[in-house]
Specification:
Elements lengths: L15 H14 L5 E4 L6 H10 L8 E5 L5 H9 L15 H5 L4 E5 L6 H13 L1 E2 L8 E2 L3 E6 L3 H6 L5 H7 L2 E4 L10 H16 L8 H9 L5 H16 L13 H5 L9 H17 L4 H8 L3 H10 L4
Helix pairs in contact: 1-2, 8-10, 12-13, 13-14
Bound molecules: adenosine-5'-triphosphate.
Keywords: ATP-binding, DNA-binding, Nucleotide-binding, Transcription, Transcription regulation
InterPro entries: AAA+_ATPase, AAA_lid_NorR, Homeodomain-like_sf, HTH_Fis, P-loop_NTPase, Sigma_54_int, Sigma_54_int_dom_ATP-bd_1, Sigma_54_int_dom_ATP-bd_2
Organism: Thermithiobacillus plumbiphilus
Length: about 325
């Protein structure tokens, strides 16, 4: 089996947990089965979908990505399935739709958990028949494309709440792949950071930034609730603000939430403690007192949360 360093798709990371996902992805890439990519926001689900496409037999075909959450519900059907001229007010031209645009390639449906029930029914019909029914068209049109779906939602729970069709769920999750959260692969943090710092330096015409040891250690300790996207944004922000600093950047350059994570260092005084206490209180309030949910909001474990609640006497 070839190395999964994934130069072609730019998927960075050597941690065993990511390599395991890439190995499974390599195995399904050559098949035409539907793949469901799970994982928190910002973990690289779309990048993995591109990886699957690039390693598929139809890599020279189109890769069409649609964020189901970004298209208003009343437009979604014609956006996906197309429409015929005159099918409804404003339909001045025939429109092939995005599924047809993905013919001979890969269709990536991001945030599939946000699809309305009618749209789910149509999607299922397409998956079973291989045909789409453009709005107002007299007959269906056959389309061959490989479907990859992704979601950060708990689909079985949506199924239980009857917000997601069980039959579609089973049809989608023939091969589920789970992108691990960044906090589960701290090994990858520094490699990703230097990758994004290099990209940012090139994009903004700045010097390549470097961090001192305590700052680097802090990057590895931080739980990254926004995952790789958050890390990428940080690298960009530091490059813009500090790309011309002569010295390696220290802890003081890191944003407050990063400096605070992994236990408050003894040397920090009142202000940071107050901020952390406030963040805990806000999260608890937002989660209406549900500790597991508050922990998730903060990107820390429930145990850590409980410990800190006690520490700050927030109970
Ligand atoms: N392993 C990785 N190597 C390099 N870049 C990565 C990696 N993972 C994620 N990225 C980058 O991080 C950003 C977020 O990734 P992506 O959009 O794929 O996440 P996502 O899980 O699809 O997010 P969402 O659920 O919010 O749509 C992108 O700019 C992507 O290129």
């Amino acid at each position: 089996m070839h190395e999964h360093s994934a130069q072609t798709s730019g998927l960075i990371g050597r941690s065993p947990i990511l390599q395991q996902v890439l190995r499974a992805a390599g195995l399904v890439a050559s098949t035409d089965v539907t793949v469901l990519i799970l994982g928190e926001s910002g973990t690289g689900k779309e990048l993995l979908a591109q990886y699957l496409h690039q390693h598929s037999p139809w890599s020279s075909g189109p890769f069409v990505a649609i964020n189901c959450a970004a298209i208003p519900e009343h437009l979604l059907e014609s956006e996906l399935f197309g429409h015929q001229r005159g099918a409804f007010t404003g339909a001045n031209h025939d429109y092939g739709g995005r599924i047809r645009a993905a013919a001979g390639g890969t269709l990536f449906l991001d945030e599939i958990g946000e699809l309305s029930l009618p749209a789910q029914a149509k999607l299922l019909r397409f998956l079973e028949s291989g045909e789409i029914h453009p709005v107002g068209a007299p007959r269906p049109i056959p389309v061959r494309t490989r479907l990859i779906a992704a979601t950060h939602r708990d689909l079985p729970m949506l199924v239980a709440q009857q917000l997601f069709r069980a039959d579609l769920y089973y049809r989608l999750q023939v091969v589920p792949l789970e992108m691990p959260a960044l906090r589960e692969r701290a090994d990858d943090v520094l490699e990703l950071f230097s990758h994004f710092a290099r990209l940012a330096a090139a994009r903004h015409g700045r010097e390549l930034i470097s961090l001192d040891r305590p700052a680097l250690r802090q990057l590895q300790r931080y739980p990254w609730p926004g995952n790789v996207r958050e890390l990428k944004n940080l690298a960009e922000r530091l490059t813009i603000l500090h790309g011309s600093d002569p010295m390696p950047l220290g802890l003081a350059c890191l944003p407050a939430e990063l400096r605070m994570s992994g236990g408050t260092p003894k040397s920090t005084g009142g202000p940071l403690v107050d901020t952390e206490r406030q963040m805990l209180a806000d999260a608890l309030q937002q989660a209406q007192g549900n500790r597991s949910q508050a922990a998730r909001l903060l990107g820390i474990s429930r145990d850590t949360l409980v410990y800190r609640i006690r520490k700050y006497e927030l109970a």
